[in-house]
Design goal:
The complex is a heterodimer of chains A (670) and B (330). With 670 residues, chain A is an alpha+beta fold. Chain A is built from 22 helices and 27 strands. In chain A, strands 20-19-21-17-22 form a five-stranded mixed β-sheet, with helices on both faces. A four-stranded mixed β-sheet of chain A has the order 2-14-12-11, with helices on one face. In chain A, strands 5-6-10-9 form a four-stranded antiparallel β-sheet. Chain B contains 17 helices and two strands. The chains are: A alpha+beta (670), B mainly alpha (330).
Chain lengths: 670, 330
């Protein structure tokens, strides 16, 4: 499995454009180490912190850890940190140690909030000022001290930090990477375990190879250039620790390392070793699982009323004054079953920082009013969506009549012109947002005004003109347009009742009735909705469109590239199965597939930008679906005592909002 | 009496088997399964899952098996190994989850029951004996209000009062400092300080109902000739009341003991959901919504078993109280 290369062999090609970044990383690490050493030897350090900070600069670690060091339970901080700790620049100022971040979770199913707030450390990560630019310009080293990409874009060499440790104090080396690669990620038996699976390691149908050079250097190589590998590593998988697994802890649970595994499975009460491993390989529920995260969960989900995490004494990041992060002692998630209860807790000041569940436009006025009593304020979430509500007609409808109508481009354009988007913005979205088709956000390098605004003008005459041209000029006595079979054109739009959908569809339904088209909104339970859309059993659906800023990572809103492209699920199936299943799409769509395949094989940023722009051009021409409103900025709340939270954070799952803003440097004014 | 109990125990066996099948079947009725829910959740967060992983998950959880195979795996593990299976969503054994929530549910149920009886008995007797007095009108009015106000509304109102008057935080059974602390006297007192809200909320509707039933039954009995006879014999009013009419009037209390538990568990769901209590109610609701079938099945099964056992208990008590019940079965 591991491709061997002559020992000491360096990638033949010169590292591409990364020299500068590597130098920067090394330089900051050096100053930080110097500061740290100075701190440890008690010599004065140039301290940029404000007078509000309470702890003396020379401590370098949290008082609670100093106590443990003095009592001999922990090694001193310089032994716990790697030789070149990652230096995090605080958002506002150097913080103070101590305090608990009070937040909330709805319990199981909401693990993602744990991932986003404390479970976000990967080998590489996105830069804090992420814009979604193509290529790896914004991918920065994290757990890895640095990375190099070969000129052909096939080999990715990572360097780890010397002396780095897991949260239980065991060393972290390439042995852990090797173990993760060979025994966990590429083992098909384990694909069902959360966070595992060879996803990012597969490229062009082939598995990558791993070569370990020494304890701190390893290379991942692909047979073809891989333009998306680093971004997928930065985005992380469900387990958030892509390619990182504690070998010393997990070996016991794998048959190839433990001959007595069957007995262990029995005594722990599981049916199979996979189940046992799944239970152990879960930082949310298994408090023994070693992590690289700033906080380690000490009270897991499942005991009912809360989840609690305490600082990781071996965390590898320091601030610019050489203090070990995180500043906060603990993070506490109170389990609140209802978002309404969470809203109440937020209003009364029981939540320090939060941006999930209750941060809907509708709740903003109440939250704004309660700010003085609750002692909190808002921060902005820069929108990452391409659209609040996209109407997707089923272009691969099973019924020939319906398919004929829906694939008629003039029909879709006509209906797009018939929607009064300003009314939607004003009444449904609290005047937040802009009329728009499904399109990258203006902040994205892929923004194209023409694409965003085409056919968004509310013009009933124009709409009627298009619908007449589409061939449906004939109407019955009630003014309803007749379809090819002579019956009035009527269809339903299914939706799973997300906030705003019901109201927006009611308005759109009226707008469309005015041009002779009968549309019935059809709300349903989420499970039923999923079943129906997966079995291609619907006329049209609405959903939120992603890909507003994460355009290259989230392209299936622009072309039917995955089973989330509900506008043409059979075409998507045709693409994902290599033409075996599904239905063959038109030539233009096939061209998009080729463009995206090429993008995946293109390592350089300009090439990716160019290919994606071509792909988007076809999206604009094909006009697969009807967009309505591009969302305005979202919000989260942050306590007035809680500092270093940026005033604006980009909002997208792929950048793990708010992890992008470095929660380890948040602090609570004491 | 022993044959009566024996017969009742025999009836329980097929009842429980049927209940377990129905419970498991109902959970399977809605479209989709746990994996569907999971995919939906992941997609709502912007993640996606490839088809191979979905297949692997269905395979691992045995969701691609036919209904009877899934049922048999589930029930045989419970009966033969005492193993309630694994909760998909919590990634934990169902037994563990029930172990952490059932005691609180029981505590809540029984304290509510005691609260209900402690309030309902005196008021019921009072408003029967002093029919049409001012006290009766007041008690009756309150009782009607208690029946009419939805539990969740009362929960919200009390939560607001607890917050503004007593400064208690929203939700939960413990204060912050005790939530993860080991049991101590302080923690017990803290629990009592929080328990009253759900207890009052859950108790009011039941109390109101009981007051009405007791009042009506007692009124019937108080007018019967044997009461007049007893009074003529010179017995004190107190002795007459407690010795005879009340014994007959409590019949409905005993015969409904078995229903108390399911009624409280189902009433508790909404209240616990609103108050964020660590009881089985929200666990069941969540399990049903996400089609976490082993967890949902186990809770429904356990509540059903407790109902059946409760019914048995009330039958035995009734049989002791009223010999006709024993003979009536012939």
């Amino acid at each position: 499995m591991t491709r061997l290369r002559p020992s000491g062999g360096q990638p033949a090609a010169r590292p591409r454009g990364l020299v500068g970044r590597r130098r920067v990383v090394a330089a900051t690490a050096l100053t930080a180490t110097a500061a740290l050493l100075a701190a440890c030897t008690g010599e004065p350090v140039d301290d940029p912190r404000e007078s509000s900070a309470g702890e003396p600069a020379s401590s370098g670690e949290a008082p609670m850890l100093t106590e443990l060091v003095e009592s001999g339970e922990l090694p001193p901080v310089e032994e716990r940190l790697p030789a070149d700790p990652l230096v995090v620049e605080p958002t506002e100022q150097i913080g103070q140690y101590g305090g608990t971040w009070r937040t909330a979770t709805t319990g199981p199913g909401d693990e993602v909030w744990l991932d986003l707030t404390i479970g976000y450390e990967g080998l590489v990560r996105w830069a804090s000022d992420w814009t979604g630019a193509p290529g790896d310009a914004e991918v920065i080293p994290n757990i890895a001290a640095g990375y190099e990409v070969s000129e052909d874009g096939q080999e990715f060499t990572f360097t780890l930090r010397e002396g780095m440790r897991w949260s239980d104090g065991e060393p972290f080396t390439t042995a852990d990477i090797e173990f993760a690669f060979n025994d966990l990620w590429t083992d098909e038996d384990l694909a069902s375990i959360r966070g595992l699976g060879a996803g990012p390691l597969m490229h062009d149908g082939e598995l990558a190879t791993l070569q370990v050079e020494d304890d701190y250097t390893f290379t991942i190589a692909f047979a073809q250039p891989n333009g998306m590998f680093l971004s997928s590593m930065a985005s992380g998988g469900a387990g958030a620790n892509t390619l990182i697994a504690p070998r010393h802890y997990l070996e016991e649970y794998l048959p190839q390392y433990n001959d007595d595994l069957d007995d262990l499975v029995q005594s722990e009460g599981y049916d199979s070793w996979q189940d046992l491993l799944a239970a152990k390989f879960d930082y949310n529920t298994n408090t023994d699982f070693p992590v690289m995260n700033p906080w380690v969960i000490t009270e897991p989900l499942g005991t009912g009323s809360r989840v609690e995490a305490e600082r990781n004494p071996y965390y590898f990041k320091i601030d610019t004054a050489g203090n070990q992060l995180p500043y906060l002692d603990a993070v506490r998630y109170t389990v609140m079953n209802e978002p309404e209860v969470m809203l109440a807790a937020a209003m009364q000041g029981d939540i320090d920082m939060h941006s999930r569940h209750f941060n809907e436009p509708a709740n903003k006025p109440v939250l704004a009013e309660a700010r003085p009593e609750g002692n909190y304020d808002f921060f902005e979430l820069a929108p990452g969506l391409a659209n609040e509500l996209v109407v997707m007609f089923n272009l691969t409808h099973e019924d020939d009549q319906m398919r004929e109508i829906f694939t008629n481009r003039d029909f879709r354009v006509g209906l797009s012109h018939a929607i009064d988007r300003d009314e939607l913005v004003n009444t449904v979205y609290q005047r937040q947002g802009t009329p728009s088709q499904v399109s990258p956000q203006p902040t994205s390098p892929f923004y194209d005004e023409e694409m965003a605004t085409q056919y968004t003008e509310f013009d009933v005459d124009l709409a009627n003109q298009y619908l007449d041209d589409a061939g449906y000029a004939e109407r019955d006595s009630e003014g309803r347009r007749l379809g090819p079979d002579g019956e009035p054109i009527a269809f339903s739009v299914e939706h799973a009742g997300l906030p705003g959908f019901e109201d927006a569809l009611a308005l759109i339904s009226d707008d469309w009735a005015d041009v002779g088209i009968t549309m019935t909104p059809d709300p349903m339970d989420r499970s039923l909705f999923e079943e129906r859309r997966r079995s291609n059993n619907f006329d049209a659906v609405v959903w939120l469109a992603g890909g507003g800023t994460d355009v290259t990572q989230n392209p299936y809103w622009y072309a039917p590239l995955s089973d989330r492209s509900d506008f043409a699920s059979l075409w998507a199936q045709w693409y994902t199965t290599g033409g075996e299943d599904g239905a063959e799409p038109p030539a233009a769509t096939q061209e998009q597939f080729e463009l995206y395949d090429e993008l995946l094989r293109t390592a350089d940023a300009d090439g990716q930008q160019n290919l994606m722009e071509q792909l988007l051009q076809i999206t604009a021409e094909e006009f697969y679906h009807i967009g309505t409103v591009r969302p305005g900025a979202g919000y989260g709340i942050v306590s007035n005592d809680f500092h270093n939270v940026p005033s604006t954070i980009p909002d997208s799952y792929r950048v793990k909002t708010p992890a992008l803003s470095n929660p380890e440097q948040y602090y609570l004014a004491q | 009496m022993l044959t009566f109990i024996g017969r009742r125990l025999l009836y329980m066996v097929p009842t429980l088997i049927l209940i377990s099948i129905v419970a498991f079947a109902i959970i399977q009725l809605p479209p989709g399964d746990y994996i569907t829910t999971m995919i939906a959740q992941m997609e709502a967060d912007g993640q996606s899952m490839d088809a191979a992983t979905i297949e692997a998950l269905r395979d691992r959880y045995g969701l691609d098996q036919p209904f009877y195979v899934q049922y048999w795996t589930w029930i045989s593990n419970i009966v033969f190994h005492g193993d309630f299976g694994h909760s998909f969503q919590w990634n934990r054994p169902v037994g563990y989850l029930l172990g952490s929530t059932l005691p609180f549910t029981m505590l809540l149920t029984f304290s509510t029951l005691l609260f209900t009886w402690a309030i309902a008995f005196p008021i019921g007797i009072f408003s029967a004996v002093k029919q049409y007095s001012i006290g009766d009108y007041v008690a009756t009015t309150i009782a009607f209000l208690g029946v009419a106000i939805p539990n969740f509304l009362l929960a919200l109102a009390l939560m607001y009062i607890a917050l503004t008057v007593f400064g208690q935080p929203v939700g939960g059974l413990f204060s912050d400092e005790y939530a993860s602390a080991p049991w101590s006297f302080g923690k017990f007192l803290d629990l009592l300080g929080h328990l009253w809200i759900p207890m009052v909320v859950l108790g009011t509707a039941g109390t109101a109902g009981l007051v009405r039933v007791l009042r009506a039954n007692l009124l019937d009995e108080l007018r019967k000739p044997y009461v007049v006879a007893a009074r003529a014999h010179g017995l004190t009013e107190r002795r007459i009341l407690l010795k005879y009419p009340l014994r007959v009037a409590v019949n409905p209390f005993l015969s409904t003991i078995g229903w108390v538990l399911p009624a409280l568990v189902s009433g508790e769901i909404i209240v616990s959901q609103v108050l964020s209590l660590p009881t089985t109610g929200p666990l069941l609701l969540r399990a049903l919504r996400s089609q976490d079938m082993y967890l949902a099945g186990a809770i429904i099964l356990i509540v059903s078993v407790l109902t059946v056992v409760g019914t048995l208990l009330s039958d035995i008590l009734l049989a002791r109280l009223d010999p006709r019940v024993r003979l009536g079965a012939r």
